[in-house]
């Protein structure tokens, strides 16, 4: 994907997504990185200055996508903390499309990171699964509900970068939308893409008129809730 594309982090609030230890030796880690047909918590869209919810629909992940992707299993989305890997559908990371979503499964490596991850899972400190993804134009649909809020339907992923075991889900407080390319966002929504506005030449007017301050924007209760989540997440980084 080009630099104009959006890479976003998401987690599921469903108990189905929680990572667990399976197998006789209890070194196999599995969970659902993506849960289908589950409405997300409120996400705040910084570019559009509004909040929305999101649903990933069954079929959004395809075998073709998995066979053409290099997907990492990471600890807390840190690319320096690699646990497993699936390249073009094969490797130490097993990704399986199920009716409920995308399941990941891997054997914890016999490394300091692998053993530490197992210990944190046994203690219940790692409670969520998360994933890094990207979409293109035609992958999503936007629906405005009767109460004025927006619902983003994801029908297809064009990019899958990693699946991660995490301590805190990334859905409620995600700040990934703050890194959006406005051009890419408009393309995803099928909106006209504005060309960059040329920088105006400096004026020599000695007494320019002051720019009036914008009127304060009244936030809806949904917007206020999303901003509280986003501010809490940003203060933790």
With strands numbered from the N-terminus, the spatial order across the biggest sheet is 1-11-14-6-7-8
Q: Which regions have little confidence, pLDDT < 50, spanning 5+ residues? A: 172-181, 230-235
DSSP strand tally: 14
**Radius of gyration from CA coordinates:** 21 Å
Strand content: 35-45%
Please sum up the structure shown.
The protein is α+β, with helices and mostly antiparallel strands. It contains four helices and 14 strands.
Give me some keywords for this one.
alpha+beta, 4 helices, four-stranded antiparallel β-sheet, single chain, 16% helix, 237 residues, six-stranded mixed β-sheet
Task: Describe the protein.
Residues 172-181 and 230-235 have low confidence and may be disordered. The protein has helices at 63-67, 112-123, 182-188, 221-235, and strands at 6-11, 20-22, 28-35, 43-45, 50-56, 70-75, 78-87, 90-91, 93-97, 101-107, 128-135, 140-144, 150-154, 159-166. Strand 2 and strand 3 form a beta hairpin. With 237 residues, it is α+β, with helices and mostly antiparallel strands. The protein is built from four helices and 14 strands. The radius of gyration is 21 Å and the shape is globular. 29% of the residues are buried. The strands form three sheets. A six-stranded mixed sheet has the order 1-11-14-6-7-8. Strands 2-3-10-9 form a four-stranded antiparallel sheet. Strands 4-5-13-12 form a four-stranded mixed sheet.
Topology:
Layout: E1 6-11, E2 20-22, E3 28-35, E4 43-45, E5 50-56, H1 63-67, E6 70-75, E7 78-87, E8 90-91, E9 93-97, E10 101-107, H2 112-123, E11 128-135, E12 140-144, E13 150-154, E14 159-166, H3 182-188, H4 221-235
Parallel strand pairs: 5-13, 6-14
Antiparallel strand pairs: 1-11, 2-3, 3-10, 4-5, 6-7, 7-8, 9-10, 11-14, 12-13
């Amino acid at each position: 994907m080009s630099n104009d594309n959006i890479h976003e982090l998401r987690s599921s609030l469903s108990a189905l997504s929680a990572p667990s230890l399976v197998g006789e030796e209890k070194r196999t880690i599995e969970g659902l990185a993506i849960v289908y047909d589950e409405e997300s918590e409120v996400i705040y869209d910084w570019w559009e200055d509004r909040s929305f919810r999101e649903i990933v629909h069954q079929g959004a992940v395809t075998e073709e996508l998995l066979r053409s992707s290099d997907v990492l299993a990471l600890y807390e989305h840190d690319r320096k903390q690699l646990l497993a890997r699936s390249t073009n559908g094969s490797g130490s990371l097993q990704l399986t499309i199920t009716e409920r979503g995308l399941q990941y499964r891997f054997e914890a490596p016999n490394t300091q990171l692998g053993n530490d991850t197992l210990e944190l899972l046994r203690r219940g400190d790692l409670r969520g699964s998360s994933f890094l993804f990207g979409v293109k134009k035609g992958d999503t649909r936007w629906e405005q509900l009767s109460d004025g809020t927006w619902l983003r339907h994801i029908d297809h992923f064009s990019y899958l970068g990693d699946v991660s075991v995490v301590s805190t889900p990334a859905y409620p407080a995600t700040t990934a939308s703050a890194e959006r390319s406005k051009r890419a966002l408009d393309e995803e929504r099928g909106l006209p893409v504005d060309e960059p506005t040329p920088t105006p030449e400096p004026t020599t007017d000695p007494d320019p008129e002051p720019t009036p301050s914008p009127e304060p924007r009244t936030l809806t209760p949904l917007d206020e809730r999303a901003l509280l989540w986003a501010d809490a997440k940003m203060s933790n980084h």
